[in-house]
Amino acid sequence: LFLATLTYDTLRFEYEDFPETKEPVWILGRKYSVFTEKEEILLDVTSRLWFTYRKNFPAIGGTGPTSDTGWGCMLRCGQMIFAQALVCRHLGRDWRWIKGKRQMDNYFNVLNAFIDKKDSYYSIHQIAQMGVGEGKSIGQWYGPNTVAQVLKKLATFDTWSSLAVHIAMDNTVVMEEIRRLCQSNVLCAGAAACSALESDLLYNGCPEDVGLRERLTLWKPLVLLIPLRLGLTEINEAYIETLKHCFMMPQSLGVIGGKPNSAHYFIGYVGEELIYLDPHTTQPAVEPSDSGCLPDESFHCQHPPCRMSIAELDPSIAVGFFCNTEADFNDWCQQIKKLSLVRGALPMFELVERQPSHFSNPDVLNLTPDSSDADRLERFFDSEDEDFEILSL
What we know:
Strand content: 15-25%
Main location: cytoplasm
Shape: globular
Keywords: Autophagy, Cytoplasm, Cytoplasmic vesicle, Endoplasmic reticulum, Hydrolase, Mitochondrion, Protease, Protein transport, Thiol protease, Transport, Ubl conjugation pathway
Structural class: alpha+beta
Number of domains: 1
Distance between the termini: 70 Å
Largest sheet: 9 strands, mixed
Enzyme class: hydrolase
């Protein structure tokens, strides 16, 4: 911890420190006091993986850009929110990074998944190339929804993490869909190894014996991303209280969004200000050493984090949550239901048990090249426009 304090003291003049306030500081579901826990706050922030613009990495697609300066900020924010999910999955929310301290292998496994090279699961190379299928050319700016869709596709290749990634569209979280996604009935390592006797116990894919069912049902850790639009051109004040509550939940992965064409990764708030990690710094690309260890200091923000007024937030965001177990998900659902009872807090999304019948099939919601994130998030604007055109004939 001493090392961490030393770092902040040397940089304290360049960055604005936390305000001396009685208001609690919330960082990804943890509550802190500025007066008694400042070092703990800073250590928590430093421990988050911080991804910024990089230069001199291998060309994307072999002939494309070797730097993402100017266009990759939302891709980097997507990496940060996803890295936080992997940290929770493999290291736990209580894990801390301390400069100079030897880290466990799983930490380097997580970090390696994001390194700027084509074969890392969530590298800028993978995100940019997968984005082509979502109608985004390499070097084009992404919105929060596009990056969420791309990360969901990339996560299917990450068998080590074995995540269930759900993107809740139309401002609606359908519990049944999530349970179906996360609960996999697995009899044993390989289907061929199962005996006929065990197969006989299955009825319509579900074991009749409840005890066996409990033993067989695995809950895949859930990454839930909810793209939202909280206003037309600026954030509607009625959502601010609800947004704050999202940072209080232990399942919080934070929020990606920012100001128009300038993305940030929001990890908490204090008073009326959001706390965020900023990707807008260009650092040289990092090469793994021969031993397989990475020089990792540049992946941790070692100065007090940036802050901005909540009112300045662009209304187009994606909120993230991580539920490691089914109990975590049930607890999250209870908290969301309670939140609807908080006075002055307008719900940002709806939580329903089943898919309403008027909903379109989620599989049909894939981005087409000519639809922007805003179009996709607020499809009812399109229908209003169409009505308007009909009326004006």
